């Protein structure tokens, strides 16, 4: 279970290094569009427990609520190719009392070329009724400790692609 420690620094971003598998690619040797989701979700699922000491399933069991995706917004910038090593980053960029937006992005191994950006918007809902509910307890602490809390009200995914591309070029 997540226990917030104000003395501890919590990274705002997860990062994984993975290879693009042959079985996940199309005949042109590009990562299949639908497979990006698997790579993104698996990378976050692997990294959150390591970085924050929390298994999301424990939060689900304790609070009897879970996040349910109601919107994906994805931009494919450059293809990921079979056998290529890539970096996958994820972070909660915004949250309120019952919703989060998780940003995932993929780069080449050297983190100089943006490949894909995904925003997943999720509502926190009760398991029993499937109705929206407020974040509570350790969930609130987790979000406060790990979220960037960006102002995304006036930014599109296209704008975000430009921002991330510029950031990568500066590195």
From TrEMBL:
Record-linked CDD domains: 4HBT
The record, for Gene3D superfamilies, names: Hotdog Thioesterase
Q: Which domain of life is it from?
A: Bacteria
Q: Which InterPro entries match?
A: HotDog_dom_sf (IPR029069)
- Supply the name of the protein: Acyl-CoA thioesterase
Origin species, per record, is Algoriphagus limi
């Amino acid at each position: 279970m997540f226990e917030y420690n104000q003395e501890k620094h919590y990274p705002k971003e997860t990062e994984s290094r993975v290879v693009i598998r042959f079985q996940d690619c199309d005949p042109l040797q590009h990562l299949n569009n639908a497979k990006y989701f698997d790579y993104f979700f698996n990378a976050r699922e692997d990294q959150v427990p390591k970085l924050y000491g929390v298994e999301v399933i424990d939060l689900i069991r304790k609070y009897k609520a879970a996040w349910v995706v109601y919107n994906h917004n994805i931009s494919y910038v450059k293809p990921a190719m079979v056998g290529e090593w890539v970096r996958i980053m994820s972070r909660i960029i915004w949250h309120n009392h019952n919703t989060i937006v998780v940003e995932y992005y993929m780069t080449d191994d050297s983190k100089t070329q943006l490949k894909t950006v995904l925003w997943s918007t999720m509502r926190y809902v009760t398991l029993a009724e499937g109705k929206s509910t407020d974040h509570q307890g350790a969930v609130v602490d987790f979000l406060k400790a790990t979220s960037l809390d960006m102002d995304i009200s006036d930014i599109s995914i296209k704008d975000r692609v430009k921002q991330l591309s510029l950031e990568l070029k500066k590195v």
